[in-house]
Write a structure and sequence with these properties.
single chain, alpha/beta
Length: 146
């Protein structure tokens, strides 16, 4: 499992011209499920998403987490993040989980995050063509593994 997180001042996801997920200040997480990801990995990724310290404290240091700031979390499934780009001129997606496994994993991560983060967790729509808009704050972007 991979999550590319971006600290944002706002972000939204549209499907067929309708907003399906929107947050103000918080984190946008592009999430790829890999073959064989387990419950332990989903639990650990949720903990990292909610606890990773990327927000400034009073001294301006990245010392506060999404939990601390009570910001929004927007999860967007993105299987292309797991692509193998090591050779050739076209990505291979054999390193991404098959669609049914990926959807189950993404939905499980979403469920865990919603249980643990009362301020709010939004999401895109799995498998849909999504238009993702964001204002990256910093810019601050990290690639997380469980």
């Amino acid at each position: 499992m991979l999550s590319l997180i971006q600290r944002v001042s706002q972000a939204e996801v549209r499907v067929d011209d309708a907003v399906v997920g929107r947050i103000g200040p918080g984190l946008l997480a592009l999430v790829a499920v890999e073959p064989g990801d387990t419950e332990a990995k989903f639990q650990r990724m949720a903990e990292r998403l909610l606890g990773y310290r990327v927000f400034a404290d009073a001294s301006g240091r990245m010392n506060r987490s999404l939990r601390d700031t009570e910001g929004g979390l927007l999860l967007v499934s993105q299987f292309t993040l797991a692509a193998d780009t090591g050779s050739g001129m076209r990505p291979s997606f054999t390193t991404a989980a098959p669609p049914l496994e990926a959807e189950r994993g993404f939905n499980r991560l979403l469920e865990i995050c919603r249980e643990r983060h009362v301020p709010g967790v939004e999401s895109g729509r799995f498998g849909a063509h999504m238009i993702v808009s964001l204002v990256n704050d910093g810019p601050v972007t990290f690639l997380l593994r469980p």
